[in-house]
Design brief:
The chain is 60% helix and 2% strand. By secondary structure, the chain is mainly α. The chain has a two-stranded antiparallel ribbon with strand order 1-4. Helix 9 (237-260) packs antiparallel against helix 12 (307-322). The protein is globular, with a radius of gyration of 25 Å.
Length: 540
């Protein structure tokens, strides 16, 4: 705190005077914000409406808290005799929500700012300004509200205690994701539609379709075990895979830490202390890099710690049956990138212990590929797609990419406008089909709601400035998680990198169910490692 900030101020009146009434209102606003943020995180695997409602409550409570901030606060702490929230909101000294300033968050907001400018400019050039702007706002620009999740988590996680609380919330959400995913493997009914089935009968319909069947075990018996494409409580397998891919690195690195030891020692009380994994006997784990060291590490794993490898195995099975190849690619990119960094900075030669496990995993995949045909033809197709064999819909991406590139070339600065991608590319298809009639049927079958590539989609709807903001966001985010002050063993920070890889083949930035946990993880990662906060918020 600077000398200027520590000077006494003359008494003020009203809500900002620090009166008992204003202080109680401020504490209430803080608790409302924390409750809303916790609800948003815990319910993102359950319901997009609940999670977004929680985010709205979190931002509203944060705004009310900021409006009640005393102008004079010599101690820099919020006044609070205690809490009755079960410890979620923390003690009096932690009842702060400092506004975090970070380049990654700035460019995250600018992505939607550029989209809004492109929407307005294209709207003025359209025949119906209100209809054009309304469609663009409803379909794409409104997601700027979700960026608030990153600002909120970064603000709330300003202390090690709050970071521990947030991590527990993420773990609860991860548990819900895995449990719901496992159940959905064996359920012909979509879990999200069970209330509808209970009140409307159990027959499928437009509002309650069956899950996709992917294979059957014991097909020759009287009671075969049918398997379905897992989507948990989500609407589509792409959405479920998009969320799971961001949580998967935590399962991998927590499991590996049982065998390789902690990544890095963190000073007591430092940000990220809760993320340090020091389970087992560090002395045994840090000794040696060969198979003998691996066996010693396995012997030191306590029974309760096996929850991590078991959860990893369950998530891997879900990923295979989910068949979201873009999500799997994003997960592999984020996990591989994180593993490379952690191996170089922490585990080093200890990673050689993993060679037997890697060979076992490769052998298991080969066996899976060989036996998949005996399970079911659809299961064979799923496994084949994981090994690079093309699916019958792969041609659609190239057709849409070709049309999107042509549209972006014709509108390089402001694009065609948010919400106008599909109408524009349909017109492009008609014109191109006149020159290439043999592609007409293929174009008609292609899914043209988005560009099937995040970067190309931003380039098409909002021009080069939107694409540059997108790339700048990831540049500053990755630079932050690699900086020495931010290189704590926070395994959650690798998850958002998955969007960068998966976004090469899907438009995950158009999926609000995926974006909310994405921004939550971004804010959680940015909260560690020397971020800047606004001076006024720090005084609060």
């Amino acid at each position: 705190m600077s000398n200027t900030e520590s000077r006494s101020h003359p008494p003020v009146t009203g809500a900002a005077s620090g009166s008992p009434g204003a202080s109680r209102l401020r504490r209430l606003a803080y608790k409302v914000s924390v409750f809303g943020g916790a609800t948003a995180i815990v319910t993102f695997p359950v319901s997009v409406s609940l999670s977004q409602g929680g985010l709205a409550l979190a931002l509203l409570g944060w705004l009310l808290w900021a409006l009640q901030r005393p102008k004079a606060d010599a101690g820099g702490l919020a006044e609070s005799p205690g809490n009755d929230d079960g410890g979620l909101a923390g003690d009096a000294s932690s009842e702060r929500l400092p506004f975090v300033r970070h380049p990654a968050l700035l460019f995250a907001a600018l992505i939607y700012g550029v989209e809004l400018v492109a929407l307005l400019i294209n709207g003025f050039e359209s025949n119906d300004f209100l209809a054009f702007v309304g469609r663009g706002y409803r379909t794409e620009v409104k997601d700027v509200f979700l960026v608030g999740m990153a600002f909120w988590t970064a603000a709330y996680a300003h202390s090690p205690e709050n970071r521990k609380r947030l991590e527990r919330l993420f773990l609860i959400a991860l548990g819900i994701m895995i449990i719901a995913g496992l159940i959905s493997i064996f359920s012909i009914y979509r879990l999200q539609k069970l209330p509808y089935h209970l009140t409307h009968g159990w027959e499928p319909g437009p509002n309650a379709r069956y899950q996709h069947h992917v294979g059957s075990l014991f097909g020759g018996s009287e009671n075969p075990l049918h398997l379905y494409m897992p989507i948990g409580l989500m609407n589509t397998h792409l959405t479920y895979g998009g969320i799971l891919m961001m949580l998967f690195p935590v399962l991998v690195f927590r499991s590996l830490s049982l065998l390789l030891g902690p990544v890095k020692s963190v000073a007591p009380g430092a940000a990220g202390e809760s993320d340090t994994v020091d389970d087992g006997d560090p002395g045994a784990q840090n000794d040696g890099a060969g198979p003998a060291a691996l066996l010693r590490a396995l012997r030191n794993v306590r029974p309760a710690q096996w929850i991590w490898p078991l959860a990893l195995a369950a998530a891997s099975l879900i990923f295979i049956l989910n068949n979201g190849r873009s999500a799997i690619f994003g997960m592999l990119l984020a996990t591989g990138f994180g593993f490379y960094v952690l191996a170089r900075t922490g585990w080093r030669r200890r990673v050689l212990r993993l060679l037997p496990l890697i060979l076992l995993a490769v052998a298991s995949l080969v066996v899976l590929d060989r036996v998949s045909a005996g399970v079911h033809s659809r299961f064979e197709q799923i496994v084949g797609a994981l090994f690079g064999r093309e699916k019958h819909t792969d041609f659609q991406r190239t057709l849409v990419w070709q049309g999107a590139l042509q549209l972006s070339g014709e509108n390089p600065v402001f694009g065609v406008g948010p919400g106008n991608f599909e109408p524009s590319i349909i017109q492009n298809v008609v014109e191109y089909g006149q020159d290439q009639p043999h592609l007409w049927v293929a174009y008609e079958l292609a899914q043209r709601g988005h560009a099937h590539n995040d970067m190309l989609h931003f380039l098409t709807i909002a021009g080069l400035p939107a694409l540059l903001c997108y790339l700048a966001f990831f540049y500053f985010y990755v630079r932050h998680i690699l900086r020495p002050s931010g290189a704590d063993p926070n395994f959650w920070k690798w998850g958002p990198v998955a969007i960068l890889g998966a976004g090469l083949f899907q438009c995950y930035f158009q999926d609000d169910e995926v974006l909310l946990p994405f921004w939550a993880l971004v804010g959680f990662a940015i909260s560690s490692g020397g971020v800047a906060t606004s001076p006024s918020a720090d005084r609060a």
